[in-house]
Design brief:
With 648 residues, the chain is of the alpha/beta class. The protein has 20 helices and 28 strands.
């Protein structure tokens, strides 16, 4: 997820772009850049201006990269050419370089704040990207799934790629197709790229004009007396206008300082309506949600889709990015998973799922334990470190311990270029986008998806599952996002229940098999944001002591999706209910006998049982969220916690 902003009109563009990008840093913040059509235009106070003399600039890309500079200027190379300024790091680096934009002349420009997905954070990978002759500059939010194919073909045609990004493929395609008609060139590009995109585009010979197009990634147009805007999200432009249009999918937009034109995919001009954004800036940053946590819960379908679909083609899982051959995958005799917190619960789920699908034994350790227990592991063990931030000190230390012992390490990480990503031998990125809320939700769900893909790929490499099973599983994986959406549509049932129990003192979660792993995550979510004491227990273990804590009115949440264990779990729920517990059942549609024992039941759509954790976790996230809300707590920033625990 990245942030895009564009402005064309009577005012100097660069300061406006930087203001807008600042409001979009929640969408990504590892690097930023702007491209401005140089020359002409207005001073910050709106009066006419000539361009300021530009300090000698470093050529973009190679030279800047070689110089190791944290920033680069690309000097205009023709009268109406484009000036590009980019910097690694937070937006303030770009601000300092450009005197808050004042030193970059021009009244038409685009800007970008990046959340790296392809290519680690660096100047050369930051946006805008342009073709070699800077005829076209592009900023992009989304994932171009077939960029490698495009890159290979265009390289053969003589195009030179500077970055590792998917976005640069779009820039070169536009350059290839552009022969004077921007809308036509964009239309041709749209037919070649696959995936999700919101693009802001400048053509050097079209000063004052911005073009934009979107497919599945958000992009809006804003209009005002001073000029017109594009943005990934309303917060970027609320300071200037509330008069916006949410660009329909697959439409192309042309903006000048005074006009806005929309074109459909057949390049016919169409009319679109504008509406008023009523949100304040803070609410807008949360997309209208009350908290980032709720917004991120609702982003899970897209996050899972973005993580899964680029790795599945024609029903087959593609794990090439691990850099391991089929033979190397087949040789893996054991998997040692290591993580902390919620990521550890992903590992617990993985144990059940990978052992069922690939018949490879999986050991799971807390990173803080693994790093000190001088582990004994078999020769062909693959160590898998799971971490959203990629900076968790215990997990990083465990990775280094495993490498010191000579084992291959795979990192499942959400932050591109993070320490764990850089030090692992192989990396499998989850594409959840920036996760702002301390309590993880969408990153957790994408880690589960990553584990499923690994299990299926491993199962195929080892011949444990055949092509038919693989296709059945990948087809179901592709259906998980819509099933998560269906659960979210019924959030009121969970909200109502949570409000009844917001002031509980102790809450227990029980489950068997991978439902136990889901119970662990439900319990942690609740504890960390509602401050209610909670424990998760393997349901069969309750009778060995903990059941003594069950008394009248205690809430016990039973998670049951595994057919072979369902009746057992029902018995455990009867055990606690007969001792006074109030029982909430979380199960799949079809298991209606749950209502014979549970006081209240929440259903999730049926799925392959090995994927059930991706669905049961959603009501558990919502339960925790609404309980914390009911107590009036700071859901996004719970006391004592940090988003990334970079200390021991
Ligand atoms: C999860 O909601 C918590 N914020 C915490 O347990 C977290 O999962 C843990 O600190 C691991 O973080 P990581 O995934 O960034 O390594």
């Amino acid at each position: 997820m990245c942030g895009i902003v564009g402005f064309t009109g009577r005012l100097q563009a660069a300061p406006i772009l930087l203001d807008g990008l600042e409001k979009l840093e929640y969408r990504g913040y590892d690097s930023a850049g702007i491209a401005v059509a140089a020359g002409g235009g207005a001073r910050p106070d709106g009066t006419a201006e000539g361009g300021d003399a530009r300090p000698d600039s470093t050529a973009e890309g190679g030279d800047a990269q070689a110089a190791g500079s944290a920033a680069a200027f690309a000097r205009p190379d023709s009268e109406s050419a484009i000036e590009i300024v980019k910097a690694k790091g937070r937006l303030k680096v770009l601000r300092e370089m450009t005197d808050d934009g004042r030193s970059v002349p021009g009244t038409c420009g685009i800007g970008h704040t990046r959340w790296a997905t392809h290519g680690e954070p660096s100047v050369v990978n930051s946006h805008p990207h342009c073709a070699k002759n800077k005829r076209v500059a592009v900023v992009h939010n989304g994932i171009i799934e077939n960029y490698q194919d495009i890159r290979a073909r265009l390289t053969k045609e003589g195009f030179t790629f500077l970055s590792e990004t998917d976005t640069e493929a779009a820039a070169h395609l536009l350059d290839k197709y552009y022969s004077g008609d921007p809308v036509e060139a964009i239309g041709k590009m749209m037919f070649r790229i696959r995936g999700s995109y919101a693009l802001g585009i400048l053509f050097a010979d079209r000063p004052g004009e911005i073009y934009a197009v979107r497919k599945d990634s958000p992009l809006i147009v804003g209009r005002s007396e001073e000029g017109n805007f594009i943005a990934s999200d309303a917060p970027a432009i609320l300071r200037y206008t509330r008069d916006v249009c949410f660009i329909p999918n697959l439409e192309i937009v042309k903006l000048t300082g005074t006009e806005i034109h929309f074109y459909n995919v057949d390049q016919e001009e169409v009319e679109e309506t504008f509406s008023q954004v009523s949100w304040d800036t803070e609410a807008a940053e949360k997309g209208g949600f009350a908290h980032f946590m709720l917004k991120e819960i609702y982003e899970q379908p897209k996050a899972v889709r973005d993580t899964v679909s680029p790795r599945i083609s024609e029903g087959h899982v593609n794990l090439e990015e691990l850099g391991m051959s089929q033979e190397e995958l087949a040789k893996i005799s054991r998997i040692q998973m290591v993580a902390c917190g919620s990521a550890y619960h992903v590992c617990m789920t993985a144990k059940y799922m990978v052992e069922q699908t690939a018949r490879v034994p999986v050991d799971v350790d807390l990173a803080s334990e693994f790093r000190y227990r001088n582990p004994v592991m078999e020769k062909d063990t693959l160590v898998v470190v799971v971490s959203q931030s990629g900076e968790t000190a215990d997990s990083l230390a465990a990775l280094r311990e495993a490498k010191k012992l000579g084992y291959r390490v795979l990192g499942i990480v959400n932050v591109v270029g993070s320490s764990i990503a850089r030090e692992a031998d192989s990396v499998f990125y989850t594409w959840a986008g920036p996760e702002i809320s301390v309590a993880t939700t969408k990153a957790y769900s994408t880690q589960l998806a990553a584990v499923y893909l690994l299990a299926i790929g491993l199962g195929r490499a080892k011949g444990v599952i055949g092509e038919a099973a693989e296709k059945e599983m990948t087809a179901e994986l592709m259906r998980l996002p819509e099933k998560i959406e269906r659960i979210l549509e019924e959030k009121e049932r969970i909200q109502w229940f949570a409000n009844k129990f917001s002031y509980s003192r102790d809450i227990f979660f029980i489950g068997r098999g991978l439902d136990y792993a889901s119970s662990l995550e439900g319990s942690l979510k609740l504890k960390e944001i509602s401050y209610i004491h909670s424990e998760a227990y393997a349901a069969g273990e309750l009778k060995h002591g903990t059941i003594s804590l069950i008394e009248d009115g205690i809430l016990v949440v039973g998670v049951a999706t595994q057919s072979g264990l369902f009746e057992k779990l029902i018995s455990n729920m009867v055990e606690v209910k007969s001792r006074g517990a109030y029982v909430l059942g979380v199960t799949s549609y079809g298991y209606y006998s749950m209502e014979d024992v549970a006081n209240y039941t929440v259903y999730v759509p049926k799925t392959m049982e090995c994927f059930a954790a991706s669905l049961t976790v959603v009501p558990l996230q919502l339960l925790a969220y609404y309980m914390a809300l009911g107590k009036g707590l700071d859901v996004d920033k719970p006391r004592n916690l940090a988003k990334s625990v970079t200390v021991e």
